[in-house]
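ligand=nicotinamide-adenine-dinucleotide
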Amino acid sequence: MVNPVRIAFIGAGIMGRHHLAVAERNPEIEIAGVAEFSPETREKLAARGIATFADHREMLAAVKPEGVVISTPNAYHAPAAIDCIEAGAVPLIEKPVADTLEAGLKLRAALAGTDLPALVGHHRRHNPIIAAAAAHVRGGGLGRVLALNGMWLRRKPDEYFKEAWKMNPALGGGTLLINAIHDFDSLRAICGEIESVQAMTSSASRGFAVEDTAAIIMRFESGALGTFTISDNVVAPWCWEMTSQEDPRFAWQPEDCYVICGTEGSLAVPTLETWTNTPNGGRDATFIRRKLYHVAAESMELQMAHFVRVIRREEAPLVTVDSALGTLAATLAVPVSAQRGTAVTIAELLA
Ligand SMILES: NC(=O)c1ccc[n+]([C@@H]2O[C@H](COP(=O)([O-])OP(=O)(O)OC[C@H]3O[C@@H](n4cnc5c(N)ncnc54)[C@H](O)[C@@H]3O)[C@@H](O)[C@H]2O)c1
């Protein structure tokens, strides 16, 4: 039998503990240790027999993990990942890959000098719903995509903001970097690269330094045009978390959060309903409404299993640092565009 891979964790807040629970259920993983600032969390983990550390560098030196899951606040992603790379461990970096493009490019440079892979935690790419939508659209199932519409609309509870970094733009807080970035990554997976973005943002309803609402127009390299609306302070169900059944912590609403429309048909996600028409069907033609086939599976589990194979060099990372930088640039283009009042190209930000 192959030895389990030894994986350590940096950050054991909401997401870090979720990753840890997923890893503990995977028989191919041995938990090497957890670095976490909070003494209470360390105490709870130590009581379960897990080696804990206050300093992640100390942990890397002490337990020499093969892989490390980084679930710190956004601003620490790139520095922690560079520390892992220097220690010879393969990182799984929570999204966003970094809080700034400068930090992300520094991470890419640190990786370039090594033969280590790195995986970025855009876990929805592992979800069979996104995979089925991407295969259908990229396979020409909608003809040429011309227009799409995406939404992330829900109300975050007040206790969500007890972690101050979630309201702090300097620490990567705000609903764009925390939520929209997932959708931008999924839309890139389905429809291809985003070429430019134009947006307006607002922080008026919560009054935090970070935005709570944004309206975004995007142009894809294919020529398709899209709109995306986001707010974390509205009572509404139209977001991936509430519609996809991906995470049981969110009460399921049988709705969609993206509609993608092409010259030969349309697709709604996550229901995966498609609408096509009789050839050359005009206004009165009958719609044919179908559902794409997919087998539901838990994307965080799939991501962790993939991470094991990436560490063993059996698979290339599904989401590389390079790819995640494209998603980060498209997301960061939103506040830049809102401030300038003009469209912003992704190429300009990545130059
Ligand atoms: N993939 C997803 O769907 C998803 C969902 C939520 C959050 N996230 C991402 O996960 C990350 C963590 O979010 P969260 O909600 O768990 O935040 P959180 O504030 O609950 O947890 C972060 C934890 O990291 C610890 N920490 C920070 N720096 C550390 C360091 N250098 N060493 C050890 N511990 C350190 C903090 O003490 C805290 O417990 C964020 O980047 C967020 O964007 C991803």
